[in-house]
From TrEMBL:
Keyword set includes Ribosomal protein: no
Record's keyword terms, sorted: 4Fe-4S, GTP-binding, Iron, Iron-sulfur, Lyase, Metal-binding, Molybdenum cofactor biosynthesis, Nucleotide-binding, S-adenosyl-L-methionine
Lineage: Bacteria, Pseudomonadati, Bacteroidota, Cytophagia, Cytophagales
Positions that bind [4Fe-4S] cluster 2: C259, C262, C276
EC number: 4.1.99.22
Reactions listed under catalytic activity: GTP + AH2 + S-adenosyl-L-methionine = (8S)-3',8-cyclo-7,8-dihydroguanosine 5'-triphosphate + 5'-deoxyadenosine + L-methionine + A + H(+)
PANTHER family the UniProt entry points to: MOLYBDENUM COFACTOR BIOSYNTHESIS PROTEIN 1, MOLYBDOPTERIN COFACTOR SYNTHESIS PROTEIN A
Positions with a binding annotation for [4Fe-4S] cluster 1: C27, C31, C34
Entry protein name: GTP 3',8-cyclase
Length: 335
């Protein structure tokens, strides 16, 4: 690895260190909180960034201080040749950490290669341990394959973080069973407030299960939580529990309590840059790449976007045009 490049800071003093890179907008599940049952209108393949274009952008971001890349989707493993792409990303000077967010359905056969390539952390989307509720939430009966992936990742020594979206009337009975996984396994189970990125699958959401209520509910069943010192840029408030090997995390994704230390960008599968999950997209990177922009021009545009960020998710939401206030599917913006 080369000597680290100077870190770029935004207009609120937050460093640029992390990019979430969506490699596809396609998914093999149909989670109702993410998209309608019939799915969403996927981008034509030609409109998605090529792997070569993604590598170019990541290389330029590394020059601005990015050290971590998380591959997301859609479901990353739906896209062909993902593992060779990970290998090429790992060779980019300055990139020190490559991780994945996956639903686990297609992941297990690739685990040995992920280990070889140095992937240290996998976030596994898993909202319930009940097979019937899993099928109802995802509209697919794939829980056994997801659990096979979960245990295979642990056996391979990859750190696993389970991401569970908390949905009133859907899976709140699963919070305690999911958290109980931390008793005997070295896993972090993270509970996420539901967000409005459902692609029109249902109307505006309410969140009776805020981060405060999630913690109160879990402590009532599992005992007192001991806060773990939060790392800069972390989205989850993490807790240890007496007698548990693993930890519990709670992500206030709708309440947006963690914006003050946000150190990340998102690049959508079609090349849209988002400096906040709640913004409408601030830069068409694909147009720059395919319009013949030089590396210096692309780098300048990326830096300018990062230096003109909203202070938090609420400001970013207020800045969205009125016609875009019905939020897109999480599948299109990279989880």
């Amino acid at each position: 690895m080369s000597v680290a490049s100077p870190v770029l800071f935004d207009n609120h003093g937050r460093p640029l260190e992390y990019v979430r890179l969506a490699v596809t907008d396609r998914c093999n599940l149909r989670c109702f909180y993410c998209m309608p049952e019939q799915g969403i209108q996927y981008m034509p393949k030609r409109e998605l960034l090529t792997y070569e274009e993604m590598e170019r952008v990541v290389g330029l971001l590394a020059g601005l201080g990015v050290r971590k890349v998380r591959l997301t989707g859609g479901e990353p493993f739906v896209r062909r040749d993902l593992v060779p792409f990970i290998g090429r990303l790992s060779q980019i000077p300055g990139i020190q950490d490559i991780s994945l967010t996956t639903n686990g359905v297609l992941t297990e056969p690739h685990i040995p290669e992920l280990v070889r390539l140095g992937v240290r952390t996998v976030n596994l989307s898993l909202d319930t341990l009940d097979r019937a509720r899993f099928a109802a939430i995802t509209r697919r009966d794939e829980l056994p394959r997801v659990l096979d992936t979960f245990y295979a990742l642990l056996a391979a020594g990859i750190k696993v973080k389970i991401n569970a979206v908390v949905m009133d009337g859907q899976n709140t009975q699963d919070l305690v069973p999911l958290a109980e996984l931390t008793r005997d396994l070295p896993v972090e189970v993270r509970f996420i407030e539901e967000m409005p990125f459902n692609g029109g699958s249902h109307g505006a959401i309410q969140i009776p299960w805020s981060h405060v209520r999630i913690r109160e509910h879990l402590e009532a069943h599992l005992g007192a939580f001991t806060p773990i010192t939060k790392q800069p840029g972390a989205t989850a408030s993490e807790y240890s529990l007496a007698g548990h090997q693993g930890t519990v995390g709670i992500i206030a994704a709708y309440s947006r309590t963690f914006c003050g230390t946000c150190n990340r960008l998102r690049l959508t599968a079609e090349g849209g840059l988002k400096t906040c999950l709640y913004d409408q997209g601030v830069l068409d990177v694909r147009a720059l790449l395919r319009g013949g922009a030089s590396d210096a021009e692309v780098t300048a545009a990326l830096a300018h976007a990062f230096r003109h960020r909203a202070a938090d998710g609420f400001e970013a939401e207020r800045q969205r045009p009125v016609h875009q206030l019905s939020f897109e599917s999480m599948s299109t913006i990279g989880g």
